[in-house]
Design a protein that fits this description.
153 residues, mainly alpha, 5 helices, 83% helix
């Protein structure tokens, strides 16, 4: 019984971690206002400091709009798989194999999400000058450090 509870605890921990990671992307760059996603003020400030040309802004906006649509679809799929996993876990006699398959499906979707984000970042990097790239990655490093320290992203 003790091992069973330990395994259930580990599975719940995995679910919570996956939930955090999937939400992190949205919460870092966007926030929801009046039912739609808008760029966070911190991100707007960084974009201003990069001094993007109108052409650069347009290219980045187009790729980001496309990314947001894809991310939204994957987030919906992740949420559905999570709900299915909760149903499996809440069963009087949880099927460990089914739970593991559901966990793998969530991880696969999460990896797809990460790939989309990285591909988008690399695509947008091509639009930037070397100096803008240096600044952007400097800001990203600072943001990551702050997020681990519990500060503003």
């Amino acid at each position: 019984m003790k091992n069973y509870l330990k395994r259930i605890g580990i599975i719940i921990s995995i679910i919570l971690n996956i939930t955090f990671v999937s939400g992190y992307y949205y919460k870092t760059f966007w926030e929801k206002k009046e039912g739609s996603w808008v760029v966070r003020p911190q991100v707007k400030r960084i974009l201003r400091q990069l001094r993007l040309s109108d052409e650069q802004k347009g290219k980045i906006r187009n790729s980001t709009d496309s990314l947001r649509k894809e991310v939204s679809k994957i987030r919906d799929q992740i949420e559905a798989r999570r709900m299915e996993m909760i149903e499996l876990l809440s069963s009087p006699h949880p099927d460990r194999e089914a739970i593991e398959l559901k966990r793998q499906a969530i991880v696969s979707l999460q990896q797809e999400l990460q790939k989309l984000v990285l591909d988008n970042l690399l695509e947008n990097k091509k639009v930037l000058t070397p100096e803008q790239q240096r600044k952007l990655f400097s800001y990203l490093k600072i943001g990551i450090k702050r997020s681990f320290e519990g500060g503003e992203r």
